[in-house]
UniProtKB/TrEMBL annotation:
Organism: Setaria italica
Protein family membership: Belongs to the nicastrin family.
Signal peptide segment: 1-27
Its membrane topology: Single-pass type I membrane protein
GO biological process: Notch signaling pathway; protein processing
SUPFAM superfamilies, per database record: Zn-dependent exopeptidases (SSF53187)
Protein name per Swiss-Prot or TrEMBL: Nicastrin
Keywords of this entry: Glycoprotein, Membrane, Notch signaling pathway, Signal, Transmembrane, Transmembrane helix
Keyword Cell inner membrane: no
GO cellular component, one term: plasma membrane
Annotated Nicastrin small lobe domain residues: 50-207
Principal location listed in the UniProt entry: membrane
Localization (cell): Membrane
The keyword Glycoprotein belongs to this UniProt entry's keyword annotation: yes
Length: 673
């Protein structure tokens, strides 16, 4: 063997050793078999809930990436005392500092610039926070039918959800809070100032891309949609159509079904307002067992409004449809509405000897005196299950923020009362925050309010005739129904997957219930058979139709329409469950009276002084977005990068000499043959 070939053999061996060793430097032992595996190992997706961008006629609120690029920034845990940021960072923020932090960001543009993104820790079950409310001290004050706007209905309110933030913000789940704390601790341990663990935010908003910064321009450019959904009303007993029979005055019982929060999909609203919704549904259930309701002097009508948290969309649109005599409100008209009883937040009754509620009457309380009297009689009739009602303090400027405001603004002499669990200030310390969860309410309080409401409504519907005490005393609420509804509408488990909801609808979401209103997608004219309506609205519609129905109509199963005008098809989404029943239950669209759907697009209408609430309507819209994402991963610090470079170089050298030596060797072998 020639000396040359021996040399090349040695060189080949060295090259081979280098080539084998080089990858071992960068491999960290895990066996990765595919690209998705690799991505999974490198990036951790973090369970979290975003704050999104909303717009109104004058500007923007909420959160968004500043541009149309993803944001990547190292994670730093924010602590009291060491709260300055050296470089643009992802701030991991303890929940108890949320309000202070966002107020500081809004007041300090320099600080705002150092914040690349915010991750809010979840407090978990051992929550010892005393209060948290991102809404204002007087929520939606512009709609109040009185001029004193300095009253603090919501003393805990910080107002932070109404500001604009040019960085993404996410609420973490309990589990991901743990993960992020570990990650930020790792970052703290590196003393060379290099933060290896970063968060990558994908919260790119279409309105930012399209440069449309208010509702009018984004609707025009199709980068947003108006907030809205579906309200539901039902009458007990059903209203006969077409008959010349004299129509009775209406006792209207109302409540709302939507809430708000800093984080779109964590708008649970247990006390405000879902406790009131549960009380209303239970009251309807209780009243539905009474025979001969059609003999009463007045007609009971129940309405559940959607979009109330965003400019009283549901109640205002309902009144607007009444004015227009729209199909959705066929059978009733606004002149027939005699008295209005709203069930507000009733999940935290003041417990003295008995649970106590406060009745807030419209400005001129003499017009509402009959409702107050009915509440007192109902309270007395409950005997040993006594529930107390007090008249709210006369020092209050008027009714608290409620749907009743729409009715009063419409007609100052409306006689109406709102039933609440507070007098001058909300007892809910977590108004419009994700902490207004089932732990924030007591189901016996809701059951007490339901009993009170059911009996008061019966008394009001009996009008001036003598109340049938025998019947009155048979009106009893089903306490297990209250508990079941709390589980279905407020808790994550079972949530909408509970048996009661599944007996009526096939829920589209299996995650924790959230009562954010959403956006109004399609043409509002096809409201009775909406192509989409949220789970809560569809459940409420089916539940009310079922409980207010007099008799089962056509025995054959249905899927949508029923043959008879006075019938509706309930449980249509449930496999083989659709049945026609005689009931007056209808959807009413809930969207701003200041927008109009025309030529396949939404347009903002000019303010009309004959619609005073429309004049002050901010016209809320939500920006489009594609996917929202948050992930966390480690980037290597520079020493490590050098090592990788070295390894890479050696691989290159190794392959180069392998090729070179190999070629020389082969050519020799070939020549020799
Ligand atoms: C509308 O958005 C602007 C701009 O961010 C904000 O200042 C204003 O308070 C919003 N209007 C209402 C009624 O919340
Ligand atoms: C407005 O309400 C606040 C708090 O209830 C009260 O202190 C104030 O005197 C009222 N202002 C007017 C002008 O009535
Ligand atoms: C009620 O009756 C009127 C006229 O009789 C009819 O035009 C209308 O469609 C009916 N509506 C319902 C919901 O039954
Ligand atoms: C209050 O309402 C009653 C009856 O509806 C009416 O007689 C009275 O004039 C009203 N008072 C005020 C101050 O508006
Ligand atoms: C306002 O309400 C009063 C009392 O219910 C009623 O008499 C009056 O007709 C209503 N006015 C309008 C314009 O609806
Ligand atoms: C709910 O209120 C009742 C009194 O009405 C009280 O006995 C019970 O302990 C309360 N439950 C909770 C969880 O606070
Ligand atoms: C009370 O509600 C529960 C739960 O929905 C139901 O199973 C039960 O039959 C109801 N009881 C009565 C007497 O209606
Ligand atoms: C029952 O309803 C079905 C479908 O809705 C319809 O085809 C049928 O004619 C109805 N029968 C009667 C007796 O109304
Ligand atoms: C304002 O509203 C009234 C009543 O709804 C309507 O008659 C009028 O045409 C509207 N004016 C404008 C300019 O839209």
């Amino acid at each position: 063997m020639a000396a040359g070939s021996a040399l090349s053999l040695v060189a080949a061996a060295v090259c081979l050793a280098l080539a084998v060793l080089a990858p071992a430097v960068s491999g960290d032992g895990a066996t990765l078999e595919s690209v998705p595996d690799l991505v999974k190992a490198m990036y951790r997706n973090i369970e979290s809930f975003p704050c999104v961008r909303l717009l109104n006629l004058s500007g923007e609120i909420g959160c968004s990436n500043p541009g149309s690029e993803k944001i990547i920034a190292p994670i730093v845990r924010f602590k009291k005392g060491s709260d300055h940021l050296v470089q643009p960072s992802t701030v991991l923020l303890p929940l108890d500092q949320m309000s202070d932090f966002f107020l500081r960001v809004s007041n300090n543009p320099e600080f705002h610039q150092k914040v690349s993104g915010v991750l809010i820790e979840s407090n978990g079950a051992n929550n010892n926070l005393q209060e948290l409310s991102p809404d204002r001290k007087f929520p939606q004050d512009a709609f109040a039918p009185y001029s004193n706007r300095s009253h603090d209905w919501n003393p805990a309110g910080s107002g932070i959800m109404w500001n604009r933030y040019d960085f993404p913000v996410f609420l973490l789940s309990e589990e991901s809070t743990q993960t992020l704390r570990e990650v930020s601790e790792k970052n703290e341990k590196t003393d060379n100032g290099y933060k290896a663990n970063v968060a990558e935010f994908d919260l790119i908003m279409q309105t930012t891309k399209a440069q449309t910064h208010d509702s009018a321009s984004c609707l025009k450019e199709h980068s947003c949609l108006p907030l809205g959904g579906h309200s539901v009303w039902a009458s007990l007993p059903p209203i006969k159509n077409g008959s010349a029979e004299h129509q009775k005055p209406i006792i209207l019982a109302i409540t709302s079904q939507d809430s708000a929060s800093f984080f779109r999909d964590r708008s649970i609203g247990s006390d405000s307002p879902i406790s009131g919704l549960i009380a209303l549904l239970t009251a309807v259930d209780a009243l539905s067992h009474i025979p001969d309701l059609s003999n009463l002097k007045k007609q009971l009508v129940f309405a559940v409004f959607n979009g109330e948290a965003w400019g009283y969309l549901g109640s205002r649109r309902f009144l607007h449809e009444l004015d227009e005599g729209a199909h959705s409100v066929n059978g009733i008209n606004s002149l027939m509405i005699d008295q209005v009883l709203e069930i507000g937040s009733v999940g935290q009754a003041v417990i003295e000897e008995y649970p106590s509620f406060y009745a807030h009457a419209a400005g001129n309380s003499s017009a509402s005196k009959k409702i107050l009297d009915a509440l007192q009689s109902a309270s007395k009739s409950l005997g040993s299950d006594n529930v107390k009602v007090k008249q709210a303090a006369s020092s209050n400027p008027g009714v608290p923020p409620s749907s009743l405001m729409s009715f009063i603004r419409k007609n100052m002499s409306t006689s109406g009362v709102v039933l609440e669990d507070f007098d001058s200030h909300f007892s809910n310390r977590f108004y419009h925050s994700h902490l207004d969860n089932p732990a924030n309410i007591n189901s016996s309080s809701i059951a007490a309010a339901a009993a009170l409401a059911a009996r008061s409504l019966y008394i009001l519907a009996s009008a001036d005739s003598v109340v049938d005490l025998m019947t009155l005393n048979t009106i009893k609420v089903n306490v297990s129904l209250v508990k079941e509804l709390v589980g279905c509408l407020l808790s994550c488990n079972p949530g909408f997957s509970c048996d009661l909801v599944k007996s009526f609808i096939s829920p589209s979401s299996s995650s924790c219930p959230s009562h954010y209103v959403g956006v109004f997608l399609d043409d509002p004219s096809g409201t009775q058979f909406p192509s989409y309506a949220d789970d809560t609205s569809r459940f409420v519609w089916n539940f009310l139709a079922d409980r207010t129905s007099t008799s089962v109509g056509n025995k054959s199963s249905c899927t949508g329409k029923c043959g008879d005008e006075g019938e509706v098809c309930i449980r249509a989404e449930v496999e083989g469950g659709g049945r026609c029943v005689v009931s007056t239950t209808r959807y009413v669209p809930a969207y701003s009276t200041r927008v109009k759907f025309e030529d396949n697009a939404w347009h903002v209408l000019p303010a009309n002084s004959s619609d005073p609430m429309g004049v002050v309507d901010p016209v809320w819209t939500e920006s489009y977005w594609n996917t929202i994402g948050l992930r966390v991963y480690a980037v290597q610090d520079s020493t490590y990068d050098w090592l990788i470079l070295l390894a890479g170089l050696s691989v290159t050298t190794a392959s180069y000499c392998a090729v070179h030596v190999g070629r020389a060797y082969i050519s020799k072998v070939v020549k020799r043959d």
